[in-house]
Design a protein that fits this description.
Blueprint: H1 2-29, H2 31-55, H3 63-87, H4 94-127, H5 146-158, E1 166-169, H6 176-185, H7 187-192, E2 195-200, H8 207-217, H9 228-239, E3 244-249, E4 256-259, H10 262-267, E5 272-275, H11 281-292, H12 302-311, H13 316-327, H14 333-344, H15 354-366, H16 371-379, E6 389-390, H17 391-400, H18 410-426, E7 431-432, E8 438-440, H19 443-455, E9 461-463, H20 475-478, E10 483-485, E11 505-507, E12 530-532, E13 540-541, E14 553-555, E15 564-565, E16 577-579, E17 598-602, E18 624-628, H21 636-647, E19 655-660, H22 663-672, E20 683-688, H23 696-699, E21 709-713, H24 720-726, E22 731-735, E23 756-760, E24 767-770, E25 784-788, E26 795-798, E27 811-815, E28 837-841, E29 868-872, E30 893-897, E31 917-920, H25 922-925, H26 933-940, E32 943-945
Parallel strand pairs: 1-4, 1-5, 2-3, 3-4, 9-10, 10-11, 11-12, 12-14, 13-15, 14-16, 16-17, 17-18, 18-19, 19-20, 20-21, 21-22, 22-23, 23-25, 24-26, 25-27, 27-28, 28-29, 29-30, 30-31, 31-32
Antiparallel strand pairs: 6-8, 7-8
Length: about 950
C-alpha cells in the first residue's frame, strides 16, 4: 500500500514538472510573438500619451492625469529594459528566454490596461471641455426682416478668410446685441468655427477682466494668475490650431464686435463695418404685433397701436420694452389711448445717441403704478450694471430708506418688497439673475435711472461703483449728496471728515484696501439710514459711529479683521438690521441694541469657550435671526443646546436660519418654541447635521422668498420631529441619509407644502414614492425633483398612482442612478401635465425613457408641456418612446450624448412642431434610422452637432 502511494505521489510530481516544462517551452516558442505584441502595445500607449499631451493643454490636466503620464514614463523605461534584454537573447539559456517571454506577456497586459485607463481619463477630460457654442436665449428674427438681412450680411463676411475683424455699429436700441446673439446661435457660424466665445464688455472692463471672461468661457480655472502676459499665453495655447470667433458685445474703448460708437470701430482697425439702421415701419409693426399678441387685432386698438409703433422710431429695444407695457393694457381702449398720449409727450428722435432712447424708455418708468415702485427702481441704480443684487438685502435697503409702504414688521415689508420687485421684473426694469435669490439691472435702464436721479431737484447722487477708484472723490462731488455708492473699488483711505448732513445711503462695500475709518468720518451723517461696509478690511469702528442716530441698516459682514468698536452703540436708537457675520467682533459689544429687528451672526461672534446666557435672547424684539455655521463648527456643538434654549424665548421671530448638529437639537426647538404652532408665521431654513450652504441653488428660489427649507445630511432612520417639520417644509434636501428605502417613510402623505425636493447620495433608497402605502394624492405641489447618486433607486414611483399626485411637477433631474430602469411607472405619466424639463444622466440601466410595458395605453397628448429633454451617457438606451405616436406639442430642445444604442428618434414630419434644436454628437448622427427622408431633412436643419 505504501509503495502504491509513493508511486502515485511520484507520478503527480512528474506531471507537474512536465506541465511546467511545457509551459516554459510555449513561452520560449512565443518569445518573438510576445515581443512584437509588447512593442505594438507600447507604441499604442505612446500614441495615447502624445495625443493627450497634444490635444489637452497642460492647464486642464488633472492630478490623476499627471500621475498617469508619470507612470507612463516609468512603464516605457521598463519596456525599453525588456527590449534591451531581447536584443541580447542569443547568449541566454532556454529557461531564461522563457522567463523573458513570460515577463513580456505580463508587461504587455500591464501596458494595455494602463493605456485603457489613459483613454478613459482622456474621455473624462474631453467631457469637461468647453462646449463649442453656448446658445443664448434671444429674439428669433423673422425671415427677410431687416435684422435678418443684417445677419446674412455678416455671415458673408465671416465666410471670407481675409476678413479678421467685423464691427456692428449703430445707435442704442437698434438690436445690435440681438443680431450678435442670432449670429452666435446660427448653425452656419457653428460650422465655420471650432469655438465661439461670447463676452459682454462693460465700460469698467479692463484687458485683464476681458481675459478672465475668456478663461471662464474656456473653463480654465487658473487660480493665482496675476500677469496679463501669462493669461494671454494660456489663452493662446488653449486656442492654438483652433478656428475661433470672439464676439464682443457692447465695446466701449477697447473677430466680431458691437459698439454704439463709430469711433470705437475705427480704433479697433476693423476690416468691415456693418451699420445697423432702425427697423422699417413694416418690420417694426411686425415685431410689436408679435410681442403684444391678440389685443392688437381689436379693430379699435389697431389704429392706436400703429401710432404707438411710429413713436418707437424703429428701435427694437424700445419696441420690446414699450410692447411689454402696452401688453398689460389688454383690450382697454382708454388705457391704450392714454398710453399713446403719454408716449407722444416725448420729443421726436432727431439726433442719434443714447439720450433719445433713454427718454423714450422712461415711458416704462412713468407707467409704474406709484411712487413706491419708482423709488425702489431708482435705488437699484446705485449698484453696478448687470451686477447681482441679493434680493433680501435690496428689500432691507428699500425699507430702511422708507420706500416700503404699509408694512408694520419685517415679514410684511419683505412680502411687499417682493411684490414691488415682481412688478419691476414684469416690465423688465429689473431682471432675474442666474444666481439664486438675486436680481440685476440692465445697463440701459440703469442709465435711464441715473439720468432721472440727476435731474431730480430733491436728489443729489454720487454713483461710481466698480470704476477702479483708488481715492475718495473730490469734495464738490460728494458735498450735499444724499446717496453715495462707491462699492467695488480700490479706495484705501477716507477723508478725515465730510460734510454730508443730507446723506441717506452710503455704500462702500468690497473696497478691499480700506483698512480704517477716520474717527470723525461719520460726524455729520445724522440722517444716514443705510451704511454698508461689508467686504472691507477695517479693524475697528470709530467713535463717530454714535452720531448715526437715524441709521436703520448696518452691514459689517465679511470684514475678517473687524474686532473693535470704540463708539457707544446705544445712540443707534433706530437700528433695525445688523449683519456681523464672518467678523471677529463679539455680539456682546452690541448688547444694548435690544430693539434690533434683523440680526445675522456667525458662531465666531458668540462666546464659545463658556456660554453666557442671554447672548441672543436679550434681543427680544428680533423678527429675523440667522446664525451661520461653517464646516469647522467653531465650537458650535458645545453651545448649540444653550443657544436653542435662548432662541425659543424670542417670541416675535418670523424668520430663523439655524443649524442643528443633531436631530435632538431640532426636537428641543420644536417642543419648546411657542412659534412652532399651527398657523405660525415662522419662516425657517434649517440644517440638520450639516454646516455649509451646499445645494442652496437647488433648494432656494427667488420666486418664493418665504420658502421653508429643511436640509438633512448624514442622518439615520426616521425621527418623528422630522415628519413634523416636513409638514411645513417647502424645500427638502435629503443627503447621505441611511436607514430608509423611500421618501414615503417620512410621511409623504403629509408633505402638502413641498415644492422642491433634492435627494443625493442616499444609498439605500429604492423608490421615491411607495404607492402601496398611500391611498390619497401625494406631492400635489411638488415642482422640482432632483435625484443624484442614488445607486439602488429602481423607480420614482412604485405601485398605484392616485389622481392628483405630482400634478405640478415641472422639472425632473436624474443623475447617477445606476439601477434605475423605469422613469415613468404605470399611471404616473398621466399625472405629469405640467412637466417641462426632463434630464437623465449616467443612469446605465435605462433602456427606454417611456417604457412601453408600463405605458401601453399612452395617449398622443401625453407630456403636453415638456419643453426640454436632455439624455446624457445612457449606454443601454434604445428608444425614447416605442414609436412616433406622441405629439410633443411643447418640445423645444433635445440634447443627446453618449447614448450609442439609441437609433430612432420619436419624431416624424408633423409632430414636435415647436422643436427648435437637437444637440448631439456628430459621430452618432449618421447612425440614426429615419422613417423617411423628409423627416431626416426636417430634423437635420435643427441639429447642433459637436
Amino acid at each position: 500500500m505504501a509503495a502504491e502511494t509513493l508511486a502515485a505521489t511520484a507520478g503527480i510530481e512528474v506531471y507537474r514538472d512536465g506541465k511546467c516544462i511545457i509551459k516554459r517551452i510555449v513561452y520560449w516558442m512565443d518569445l518573438k510573438r510576445n515581443y512584437k505584441k509588447l512593442m505594438q502595445e507600447a507604441g499604442d500607449l505612446r500614441a495615447t500619451k502624445d495625443a493627450i499631451c497634444t490635444e489637452i493643454s497642460r492647464f486642464r490636466l488633472t492630478e490623476d492625469m499627471r500621475v498617469w503620464i508619470a507612470r507612463t514614463g516609468m512603464i516605457e523605461e521598463e519596456v525599453i529594459e525588456l527590449e534591451t534584454k531581447y536584443e541580447k537573447k542569443q547568449r541566454w539559456r532556454l529557461d531564461c528566454l522563457a522567463n523573458l517571454s513570460r515577463d513580456m506577456t505580463e508587461k504587455c497586459n500591464q501596458v494595455r490596461n494602463h493605456r485603457e485607463e489613459g483613454k478613459l481619463q482622456k474621455m473624462t477630460l474631453a467631457m469637461e471641455l468647453p462646449e463649442p457654442v453656448r446658445k443664448i436665449h434671444t429674439l428669433k428674427l423673422q425671415e427677410n426682416s431687416s435684422l435678418h438681412k443684417v445677419v446674412r450680411h455678416v455671415l458673408g463676411f465671416l465666410d471670407d478668410e481675409k476678413i479678421r475683424r467685423i464691427a456692428i455699429c449703430g445707435m442704442v436700441g437698434t438690436a445690435k446685441t440681438t443680431i450678435m446673439e442670432n449670429l452666435n446661435n446660427h448653425e452656419k457660424v457653428a460650422k465655420m468655427f471650432d469655438m465661439i466665445i461670447w463676452v459682454s464688455v462693460t465700460k469698467e472692463w479692463s484687458e485683464r477682466k476681458l481675459q478672465d471672461a475668456i478663461l471662464q468661457r474656456l473653463k480654465l480655472d487658473v487660480q493665482g494668475l496675476t500677469s496679463i502676459e501669462e493669461a494671454a499665453l494660456i489663452i493662446s495655447e488653449e486656442l492654438k490650431e483652433k478656428k475661433y470667433l470672439i464676439v464682443l458685445d457692447e465695446v466701449w474703448d477697447m473677430v466680431l464686435l458691437a459698439s454704439r460708437y463709430d469711433g470705437v470701430c475705427y480704433d479697433m482697425e476693423v476690416d468691415e463695418i456693418v451699420d445697423v439702421q432702425p427697423l422699417s415701419l413694416n418690420d417694426a409693426w411686425k415685431m410689436f404685433k408679435e410681442k403684444v399678441g391678440h389685443p392688437i387685432s381689436h379693430p379699435l386698438i389697431e389704429p392706436i397701436a400703429r401710432h404707438v409703433v411710429e413713436e418707437c422710431h424703429g428701435l427694437p429695444l424700445l419696441i420690446d420694452r414699450v410692447s411689454r407695457t402696452f401688453r398689460k393694457k389688454d383690450k382697454n381702449v382708454s388705457r391704450w389711448e392714454d398710453g399713446l398720449k403719454r408716449l407722444q409727450r416725448w420729443d421726436s428722435v432727431k439726433i442719434e445717441g443714447m439720450d433719445e432712447v433713454l427718454e423714450r424708455l422712461e415711458i416704462c418708468y412713468e407707467d409704474l403704478k406709484d411712487g413706491e415702485q419708482k423709488e425702489c427702481f431708482l435705488y437699484a441704480a446705485l449698484y453696478p450694471e448687470e451686477s447681482e443684487i441679493y434680493v433680501d438685502y435690496l428689500i432691507e435697503c428699500w425699507r430702511a430708506e422708507g420706500f416700503i409702504n404699509h408694512a408694520n414688521n419685517f415679514k410684511q415689508a419683505r412680502d411687499r418688497g417682493h411684490t414691488v420687485l415682481n412688478e419691476l421684473i414684469k416690465v423688465s426694469l429689473i431682471e432675474r439673475s442666474n444666481k439664486s435669490k438675486c436680481v440685476k439691472m440692465n445697463k440701459v435702464f440703469r442709465k435711464m435711472a441715473l439720468k432721472i436721479l440727476s435731474q431730480s431737484a430733491n436728489s443729489k447722487i454720487l454713483v461710481k461703483p466698480h470704476e477702479e477708484l483708488e481715492d475718495f472723490p473730490r469734495k464738490e462731488e460728494w458735498e450735499l449728496a444724499n446717496r453715495i455708492s462707491l462699492m467695488d473699488n480700490g479706495v484705501s483711505t477716507l477723508p478725515k471728515s465730510v460734510d454730508c448732513h443730507d446723506l441717506l445711503t452710503l455704500l462702500l462695500q468690497r473696497n478691499k484696501y480700506l483698512t480704517s475709518i477716520p474717527e470723525l468720518f461719520f460726524m455729520s451723517m445724522c440722517h444716514l439710514q443705510v451704511l454698508d461696509l461689508h467686504g472691507t478690511r477695517i479693524s475697528a469702528l470709530p467713535f463717530s459711529l454714535s452720531n448715526l442716530i437715524s441709521l436703520k441698516a448696518l452691514y459689517l459682514n465679511s470684514c475678517p479683521d473687524l474686532i473693535e468698536i470704540t463708539a457707544s452703540v446705544e445712540a443707534l436708537k433706530h437700528l433695525e438690521v445688523l449683519d456681523i457675520r464672518k467678523t471677529k467682533i463679539n455680539l456682546l459689544k452690541f448688547r444694548s441694541l435690544i430693539w434690533l429687528k434683523c440680526l445675522r451672526i456667525s458662531v465666531c461672534n458668540l462666546e464659545t469657550g463658556y456660554h453666557i446666557e442671554t447672548q441672543v435672547s436679550r434681543f427680544d424684539t428680533l423678527e429675523e435671526l440667522s446664525i451661520d455655521v461653517d464646516s469647522s463648527k467653531e465650537g458650535w456643538d458645545e453651545i448649540v443646546k444653550m443657544v436653542v434654549k435662548e432662541v425659543v424665548m424670542l417670541k416675535k421671530l418670523t424668520s430663523l436660519r439655524f443649524c442643528f448638529p443633531e436631530v435632538d437639537h431640532l426636537d428641543l426647538f420644536v417642543k419648546h418654541s411657542p412659534l412652532w404652532e399651527k398657523d405660525s408665521c415662522l419662516t425657517f431654513q434649517f440644517s440638520v447635521g450639516c454646516h455649509d450652504s451646499a445645494f442652496a441653488q437647488i433648494l432656494e428660489s427667488i420666486d418664493n422668498l418665504t420658502h421653508n427649507i429643511l436640509k438633512m445630511v448624514n442622518g439615520q432612520g426616521v425621527d418623528p420631529v422630522i415628519i413634523k417639520v416636513l409638514m411645513e417644509t417647502n424645500a427638502f434636501g435629503l443627503i447621505g441619509h441611511k436607514g430608509v428605502s423611500s421618501l414615503s417613510a417620512f410621511g409623504i402623505e403629509k408633505m402638502n407644502k413641498m415644492f422642491n425636493c433634492l435627494i443625493d447620495r442616499c444609498h439605500e433608497i429604492k423608490t421615491i414614492v411607495d404607492g402601496h402605502k398611500t391611498s390619497e394624492a401625494v406631492l400635489k405641489w411638488l415642482e422640482n425633483l432632483y435625484i443624484k447618486d442614488v445607486p439602488k433607486l429602481e423607480s420614482i414611483w412604485e405601485g398605484p398612482v392616485c389622481a392628483g399626485s405630482l400634478a405640478q411637477l415641472a422639472s425632473i433631474t436624474l443623475c447617477k442612478c445606476l439601477e434605475l430602469k423605469k422613469i415613468f411607472s404605470h399611471g404616473m405619466i398621466q399625472q405629469l401635465l405640467q412637466l417641462k424639463h426632463l434630464r437623465v444622466e449616467e443612469c446605465y440601466q435605462i433602456e427606454e425613457i417611456i417604457m412601453e410595458s408600463e405605458n401601453a395605453q399612452l395617449v398622443p397628448e401625453a407630456l403636453p408641456k415638456l419643453k426640454t429633454l436632455i439624455l446624457l451617457d445612457l449606454p443601454r438606451l434604445t428608444r425614447i418612446w416605442a414609436n412616433d405616436s406622441l405629439e410633443w406639442p411643447s418640445l423645444q430642445g433635445i440634447e443627446i450624448s453618449m447614448c450609442d444604442m439609441l437609433k430612432i428618434l420619436p419624431f416624424n414630419q408633423v409632430n414636435a412642431t415647436n422643436l427648435q434644436s437637437i444637440k448631439g454628437q456628430q459621430s452618432r448622427w449618421g447612425d440614426l434610422v429615419w422613417e423617411d427622408d423628409a423627416t431626416k431633412q426636417r430634423l437635420q436643419s435643427l441639429c447642433i452637432l459637436y
